[in-house]
């Protein structure tokens, strides 16, 4: 009688490893945005690099900067794209949708701080452009321009 060796016992980790390697192989071969070389499928690449869509989205945002409830989700729905497609569209600009909205608001606030003079409070200027929380407005203004809004206004020779 010949004694056959017992089959090797697999530990949980070995079994999981074998499954994950075949899963990795299937994932690499699956079609989709995560392709070798970082290339996007042609249909998605058109959405990402669509300059007409980008101009339309930016115009939509600019027209609604005063709305404090403006969100990337609202922008996506109004422009008939997914939120992910919208974020990919702005990746070509080196920014995000939310950051672009915030930066546009800050730029409008900066211009108004100089143009309005001392008669209009800093908090009013922030609220006018969709930033009703004056402490948040002051904090992000300082991070962006290097000084608080009041000091910026004074340095510009307005107040």
Automatic annotation (TrEMBL):
GO terms for biological process: methylation. It comes from the Bacteria. Residues 55-155 form the HTH araC/xylS-type domain. It is an enzyme of class 2 (transferase). Its EC number is 2.1.1.-. Coiled coil: none annotated. Residues 30-43 have a biased composition (Low complexity). The keyword Disulfide bond does not apply. This is Transcriptional regulator. The lineage of its organism: Bacteria, Bacillati, Actinomycetota, Actinomycetes, Pseudonocardiales. InterPro entries: AraC_XylS_family_regulators, Homeodomain-like_sf, HTH_AraC. One of its GO terms (molecular function) is sequence-specific DNA binding. It comes from Saccharothrix espanaensis (strain ATCC 51144 / DSM 44229 / JCM 9112 / NBRC 15066 / NRRL 15764). Keywords: DNA-binding, Methyltransferase, Transcription, Transcription regulation, Transferase. Residues 1-43 are annotated as: Disordered.
